[in-house]
Specification:
By secondary structure, the chain is mostly helical. The protein has a single domain, classed as N-utilizing Substance Protein B Homolog, Chain A (Orthogonal Bundle), CATH 1.10.940.10. The protein contains seven helices and no strands. Helix 1 crosses helix 5 and helix 6 runs antiparallel to helix 7. The radius of gyration is 14 Å and the shape is globular.
């Protein structure tokens, strides 16, 4: 989420944002690889992810959603769409916790509401995909 925030708000190139953030943290290679895959996957699917967020945040155009919340939602929606190894409940709960920690009061409920709607939409449309692009 922090890397996506840097790219979105700071307009930092993805490879630099990944480098800056991952070098600062004492993470295993597996965790760094996973974080990189999540960031790059989110960026690759940004148009579809943003479209889903916009469709389900009715009174909140994407540009009006708080920067932190927008990037939490982007990461979570990418996971819901393309990372079936992570249960949707885990993705949604982690997004809620991130919102509670990094965003303002009520952000957890806001993120929860949007992600619940998006998850229902994904289930109805049968759009859950494997990371290799195949349908689940």
């Amino acid at each position: 989420m922090q890397i996506l925030f840097q790219i979105d708000v700071g307009k930092i190139r993805p490879e630099k944002a990944l480098q800056y953030t991952l070098e600062e943290e004492n993470l295993s290679k597996d965790v760094k690889d996973f974080a990189t895959a999540l960031v790059l996957g989110t960026l690759e699917h940004m148009e579809k992810v943003d479209k889903l967020i916009a469709q389900h945040s009715h009174d909140w155009p994407l540009y009006r959603i708080a920067n932190v919340d927008r990037n939490i939602l982007r990461l979570a929606v990418f996971e819901l769409l393309c990372v079936p190894d992570i249960p949707h409940t885990v993705t949604i709960n982690e997004a809620i916790e991130l919102a509670k920690i990094f965003s303002g009061e009520g952000a957890g409920a806001f993120v929860n509401g949007i992600l619940d709607q998006i998850w229902r939409h994904i289930q109805e449309e049968g759009k859950v995909q494997n990371t290799d692009g195949g349908q689940q």
